[in-house]
Every structure is written in C-alpha cells, then in structure tokens.
Write a structure and sequence with these properties.
alpha/beta, TIM Barrel, two-stranded antiparallel ribbon, 12 helices, about 40% helix, about 15% strand, binds NADP nicotinamide-adenine-dinucleotide phosphate
C-alpha cells in the first residue's frame, strides 16, 4: 500500500532506500553499488533518498547522486521512482558542516541537477538549518529555485516543529526528514510528528533501524527480536513495520549496502503487525504522545 508524500500528491511505498551507506567508507565499489541499486529497482524500490554530501569529502561531492543516476538512466522503472536529494551541508576534510547560505544552496542544487542528470529535482530538502544563516533566507532560496523550475517540491530535514512552521510560512513544505527509530522517538515527544500530521506534511524517518550509533541496540533489542521470531522476519523488519504503524504520514528510508538488508527492509512494506504484538511494542518503546 502506497503513502502520499505530503501535499505533493506523489505516492510511494512506505519503505524507501537511503543511499548513504553506498557512499560513506567502507563503501562498495561503484559497479557493485550500481548493480545493487538496479536489483532494488527490480524489487520495486520507488523512493530513493540521497544527498550531495553522501561522499568521502568535498572532493567527492555528488558520489551518491551519480550512483543513482547511473543505475536509473536506462532502467525501465526510472520514470516511476521518486529521487529526493538534499543540499545545505559541506564536507571539508570529511567533516559535516552547515552550508545554508542562499548562494551555497543555489550552487549545490545546480551541482545536484548535473550529478542526477535531470532538469528538475522532484524533492529537494534543506539538509539542516545553518545556525549562521537566517532560516527564512535558506528556505526562501529553495522556493526561488522552485519558481525557476529547478525543484518541484521542497522538504526540510533536522528541523523542530517551530522551524517547520516557519518554513510553511514561506511556502508549501511537503516533507520533514528527521531521525526516528524505536530507541529514538524524539520526533514523537518534541511535537514534530504531530506538526507534520496537523499540516499534511510527510515525516521521513531517517536511520530507522538505528543508524551508525544505535543499530546494534535496535537489531538486538529483545522485544524486536522476539516479535521477528514470531513473524518469521528480522528485528529490522519489525522495527520498520512498527514505525510505520505510528502514523500514516511516516515514510522510512533504511540505508543498505547489501542485498540481504535491502530485502529485509522491503519485507516491511506489507507487514501488518498483529494488534497484540503492536501493543507490546508500544509498551516497550513508550511511544505515547504528550497531551495536546
Ligand atoms: N537527513 C539527515 O540528516 C540524515 C542523517 C542520516 C541518514 N539519513 C538518510 O537516512 C538513511 C538511513 O539512515 P542510516 O543509513 O543512517 O541508518 P539505518 O537505515 O538505520 O541503518 C543502515 C544500516 O543498517 C543495516 N540495515 C538496513 N536495513 C536493515 C534491516 N531491515 N535489517 C537489518 N539491518 C538493516 C544496513 O547494513 P548494510 O550496509 O550492511 O546493508 C545499513 O548500513 C540514509 O541512508 C540517508 O539516506 C539522513
């Protein structure tokens, strides 16, 4: 069953693919990565999340976008895939720094258009607010790029509910991409998820199986392991299905650099958790919402 990406009207499967592990060290060879992406497309992946900065450092900007462009260019599924990218960070010496000045965002967007080999980016997300740049200036530049036809839809990432509100006062924001996994439900508790629901914005959960920092804890969590054993799937698949059960506005973008993890994630697309199991996971991870 597909879900709508906020007010864009675009429909995608609720489990997409985050491209980051294909471009950060240790990373597969380019030909292995392209072959894996093409297999993913064959398996029905229709939503890809990438970024200009998924790469080794500033000398390698666009690595991840170029991989997806290579995999997509002659694949029969290419017209049915939503490719979302991001701008607003830079990678000097491999560090992650903010780069949200309007001129930097414009240059990043133009580089991404070239890396992706497209004339328009369907969903362009501000990677993170830049503390040295007024938020409205960064967001305003994305809407100028949209007016010029370089972007179709604008999304935000790593924002608070207040920043989402500020973004919406500049123009239609279709998505917010923040971290969310069973051991990090801050988006539930800080009101971002509720703000997305209220305003018809999609919530794209990044690092949904724990990311670099907490993947081991998520995949080894006894409640997820037991539920997976019960259902004949892995703990990661259960984690994704449970996140999706929290709200119809949630989309997930697990990263994968191997086919078995990709398959495990895609198995969550059609997995409906039995109510008893779902209630147990709700109790375990304590997702209850703050009173309105
Ligand atoms: N907006 C932001 O600031 C931001 C920040 C971080 C990430 N992201 C986006 O979110 C995506 C996902 O986040 P992430 O890559 O940090 O973390 P993640 O999806 O939580 O974890 C990714 C790792 O977990 C493994 N994995 C994936 N699905 C699995 C499953 N179903 N079962 C067991 N293991 C599984 C993969 O291993 P293998 O590599 O061995 O296949 C992968 O490397 C990124 O690729 C990126 O697109 C955005």
């Amino acid at each position: 069953m597909k879900r709508t990406v906020g007010s864009s009207g675009l429909q995608v499967a609720p489990v997409g693919w985050g491209g980051m592990p294909l471009s950060l060290p240790p990373r597969p060879t380019e030909s292995d990565a392209v072959a894996l992406i093409r297999t993913g497309l064959d398996l029905g992946v229709d939503f890809i999340d990438t970024a200009d900065v998924y790469c080794r450092d500033d000398g390698d900007i666009g690595h991840n976008e170029r991989l997806f462009a290579r995999a997509l260019h002659d694949h029969p599924a290419r017209t049915n895939v939503l490719v979302a990218t991001k701008g607003g960070l830079c990678r000097p010496g491999g560090r992650w720094l903010a780069a949200g000045r309007p001129e930097a965002l414009r240059a990043a967007c133009e580089r991404s258009l070239r890396a992706l080999g497209v004339e328009q980016i369907t969903l362009y997300q501000l990677h993170a607010p830049d503390p040295d740049v007024p938020f409205a200036d960064s967001v305003g530049e994305l809407f100028r790029l949209r007016e010029e036809g370089k972007i179709v839809h604008v999304g935000l990432s790593n924002v608070s509910a207040e920043e989402l509100g500020a973004g919406l006062s500049v123009g239609p924001i279709v998505s917010v991409q923040n971290q969310m996994h069973p051991l990090d439900l801050s988006a539930v508790h800080d009101g971002v998820l509720a703000a997305c629901e209220r305003t018809g914005v999609a919530f794209i959960a990044y690092s949904p199986v724990g990311g670099g920092a907490e993947r081991r804890e998520v995949l080894g969590h006894p409640a997820l392991v037991a539920a997976g054993a019960n259902l004949g799937v892995g703990a990661g698949t259960v984690a994704l299905a449970w996140l999706l059960s929290l709200s119809p506005c949630i989309l997930t973008i697990p990263g994968s650099s191997r086919l078995d993890t990709l398959r495990a994630s895609l198995a969550a697309r059609g997995l409906v958790l039995p109510p008893v199991l779902r209630a147990q996971l709700d109790d375990t991870f304590g997702h209850s919402r703050p009173a309105a």
